[in-house]
Amino acid sequence: MKLVRLYSKLNDIHKAIPLSLISFEAARNAKNANTVRALSEMQGILKLWVEKHKGVELAPFSAGQIKKHATGSGSASKDDMIAAATKNHPDVEIIDDNHADALCLLDLTIDWYGEKD
Questions:
Q1: 37-92 residue pLDDT tens
Q2: Domain boundaries, the chain
């Protein structure tokens, strides 16, 4: 059901705010087999959704790419990522390391593709 909900949520978001780019952390290296499977399935849903919605592009980035862009090191720690997000987004209260990672992914995406309105 999680995959069905993901597909449905993408439809809802696209209806409210038409998407042209979906940026995400690509599942490449995970220690747990169940994590790899779940992330791979979600990526498959993203690819399926994009195939049905022409004009939307996928922008997968590895964890190492995100970390290197944010901190200069592809093996940065969670604390390093929080510090980078805090530095680059001083007006945002960083909730946790996942929030910091998302902001760092946003920064990388904007640098890679440019800022969209």
A1: 898 999 999 999 999 999 999 999 999 999 999 999 999 999 999 999 999 999 99
A2: 1-61, 63-117
